[in-house]
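Hey L., structure's done. Input below.
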Amino acid sequence: MNGTDPVELFRRATARAATIMDAVAPGQLTAATPCPQWSVQQLIDHMTGSTDYLLAALAGERPPARRGATVEDYRAGAAAVLEALARPSALGRRCMSPLDFEWSVGEATAGTFMDNLVHTWDLATATGQDPTLDAELVDACVAMFLPDMPERGRAAGIVGPAVAVPADASPQDKLLGAMGRRP
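Output:
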């Protein structure tokens, strides 16, 4: 695997997220998540909305708001994103980030990979599933986004305070701590 191919990182992260999402029981949709402002359903809406964001970025539009998203919506959105990203020069298009700066669709795809990877842990944790993330994806995410991205997110109010982890913590725990999670 090319460790920094944003399309492959997105593909792998969304495939794992869909597996976790598929195992969520209807009675868990109102449960709390490690994201204090979101229930499990709201987290699924956000994750599905990330696919809407990339599709809208490619079309030069604003993404629609999501409510009541399902794993089928998420899978369909991820498949549509992968199809759209395969088009010539898709990754080089410019779009606005959720933090309101301009970046390429390739960078947006990498950012969406990171968001989905971390939120997969949130979803698994909230629903009592195995929260272990793919080590290769964690390593790629750490290399691409730490330490800068969490600080930008904190400044924008979308990432919680960093959580201290031991110096010998696993890369997954270091990523989660940097993103304001208690691993």
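The beta strands are 94-96, 102-104. The CA atoms of residues 43 and 123 lie 7 Å apart.

-- N.
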